[in-house]
Amino acid sequence: MTKTPYENEQRKREFLEHLKGAEGFAESSINTFAEAIDQWQIFTENDDFGNFDRSKALAFRDWLKTRKANTESGTISLVTQYNYLRRVKRFFKWLSEQPGYRNKILKNDVEFLRLSKGDARIARQGTTKQMPTFEEARAIIEGIEIKNEIDMRDRALICFALITGTRISAITTLRMKNFDPENKLIDQNPADGVKTKNSKRILTTFFPIGWDEPEKYFTEWYAYLKSKEYKPDDPIFPATLNNFISEKSEYSKEFIGKDFWSGTSGARKIFEKRCKNVDLPYFHPHSFRHLIVSILSKNRHTEEEKKAISLNLGHANVGTTFGSYGYGSMTNEDAVKIVQKLTVSRQSGNSIVLSDEERMVLERVMKKVL
Questions:
Q1: Is 203 helix (H, G, I), strand (E, B) or coil?
Q2: Measured CA distances, 259 to 156, 171, 231, 243 (Å)
């Protein structure tokens, strides 16, 4: 390996270690930064990071626009371009403060790693989030005909996602001891091997969604596992039983084992299969988190209640829950419909007090007007 590629890899490794150790980034997030920096290295043919300048930043931005991808357009989306640029930008900002690079990389040049304002606005809006309606989620669950353990597990897993909003990585690593049936408490504890975002310990309970069956199905499943003498360290949602026959692996169509999933793909396929069975598009597990917030956003909550909802979902910031997950995903069509039926909730003197949803709609409309 020549000197320049070696030094580049050293700096990249130091940056990724900084993200992990100093800033506490999860492995999945770190990988997205590594992928973005890889794009820069492909573009520059692994040129010395120290040769970064404004012209290269602008050329990289233009190169991303024509980067081939397996999409309908044949190129990468604005959202992907935006994420690549912001992550590469963060890397070079960090690098500009490191010994040996302070006089080579100008922070002002790093600022050119950005989309135009118009493209950035489109990218931040993202693509339309596809999530099930309450009726569709109910159809998926009720469409599971219980014939064996696999059916029981699949129904309980989807029910659990619906009433807790737990991320799929945590769901597949939950142990029997992480659920307290008496207090209806789920302890997503990384010390037990539960894989949470940023290795954060999250205490969760069941959200009220106006339908009691999902909680019933899950608790019945948990009791069933107890009757089968599942131990505290056994998984709540075990992988399908794996039988080794004639040197090849065959999976049971009826029974579960006592092993954890090797990843999340098996659990994701459960959602895909059960959606398909009722002629619905695939709603990925994370969309059920959005559905919960959508359901809860229909009601008024005190600031204390909103904070509690956020913490149950593992969010430290209420704005994340009711912004990115809740009202932040509101479409313009939704906004129009809500304004059309807008009513004044309460009046105190000349002061009009609106609900959170109504206030969000008005703010969106006013931003467009101004």
A1: strand
A2: 17, 14, 12, 12
In this predicted model, what pLDDT tens digit does every residue of 200-228 receive, in sequence order?
Answer: 899 999 999 999 999 999 999 999 999 99
> What value, to the nearest 5°, has the Cα angle with vertex 58 and ends 52 and 60?
75
Render pLDDT for 167-207 as a digit per residue (tens, 0 to 9).
999 999 999 999 999 999 999 999 999 999 888 899 999 99
Tell me the residue type at 282.
Y
Per-residue pLDDT reduced to its tens digit, 286-339: 999 889 888 887 777 777 787 888 888 887 776 666 655 554 455 555 545 544
Residue 297 domain-assigned (yes or no) = no
Domain final residue, candidates 94, 125, 156: 125
Question: 206, 215 in Cβ contact below 8 A?
Answer: yes
Q: Are 213 and 141 in contact (CB under 8 A)?
A: yes
Residues 240 and 188 in one domain: yes
Q: Which of 207, 179, 160 is nearest to 309 (CA)?
A: 207
| Sole residue written with tokens 């994420």 | 83
